[in-house]
Amino acid sequence: MTDTQEASQPYPRSVTFGGESFALTGQMPAIGAAAPRFSVCAWHNAAKVDVTLESLLGPGRPLLLSVFASVDTPVSRLQLKNFDNALAQFGDLATGVHISSDLPFTIRRVFGNEEIACFMGFSDYLDRNFGHAYGVLLEESQVLARAVFVIDSTGILRYAELLPEVTFEPDYLAALNALS
Predict the structure, then answer these.
(1) ∠ CA 53-56-61 to the nearest 5 degrees?
(2) Predicted confidence band of residue 11 (pLDDT cuts 50, 70, 90)
(3) Can you tell me the distance from the alpha carbon of 11 to that of 33, in angstroms, rounded to the nearest whole number?
(4) Which of 1, 107, 143, 161 is placed for a possible disulfide with 101 were both Cys, Cβ 3.0 to 4.6 Å?
């Protein structure tokens, strides 16, 4: 779904994977509304670090959230690399975050191997707080659907895209334009 969708139209409550339908839990937030609070985690120096929406927002810096089930899939790697390369053009004018259902050390391994420089990687595996808050958690498997969100520096959701098929790539250009 994009920012052109009317707020009165509901987001789909399921996505497909290889044509098979999977129900989503939670409710996607409305564009123009306050972005739901969330916490995700990472590991730093063998210690769990919790990261919140509030800690990611910076004055004058919009936030791009790139969401998918696992960094160990080809489409997710493309999404990770494409957004990381594109965000380099923004310098310090935007913050990029990938959120997946992976364990934090898996994210760290892939970010190192792929030389990801502009994005931070976080995990929703522990309590699936993000997936529930943003309505992108597959009910049965408890992994994240593929989605992209842009939140402005004041915490207002400005762009949302939920991919109807989890193997599809997002609209990179539309998401990046929403950062401007």
Answers:
(1) 120
(2) low
(3) 15
(4) 143
> What sign does the dihedral 74-47-143-34 (CA atoms) show?
negative
Closest to 1 measured CA to CA, from 179, 177, 138, 174:
174
pLDDT at 110 over 50: yes
CA 101 to chain centre: 11
Report the length, in residues, of the chain.
Answer: 180
Tell how far CA 179 is from the center of its chain. Answer: 14
Three state DSSP letters for the chain? CCCCCCCCCCCCCEEEECCEEEEEECCCCCCCCECCCCEEEEEECCEEEEEEHHHHCECCECEEEEECCCCCCHHHHHHHHHHHHHHHHHHHHCEEEEEECCCHHHHHHHHHHCCCCCEEEEECCCCCHHHHHHCCEECCCCCECCEEEEECCCCEEEEEEECCECCCCCCHHHHHHHHC
pLDDT at 8: 38
Write out the two tokens for 153: 């520096």
Residue 75 CA to residue 89 CA, distance in Å, equals: 22
Q: pTM for the complete prediction? A: 0.91
Gap between the Cα atoms of 180 and 177, Å rounded = 5
